[in-house]
Here is the input.
Amino acid sequence: SAKVAHFCSMCGPHFCSMKITQDVRDYAASHKFKDIDVAVEEGMKEKAEQFRDQGAEIYKPV
Here is the structure.
């Protein structure tokens, strides 16, 4: 039986540029943004809040 990977070996599962791109597209579609600047601003606010909620630490133990 062959090993099945759901990501390429270039970036790995936690930083896949193709997945990030698709996540951004899905986020914009689900929030129905018409202006890219508004979408970017809202996304940054959401990520900043998530970062603070998780302890505002850049380096986390794995």
Notes: The chain has two helices and no strands. The chain has a mean pLDDT of 79.
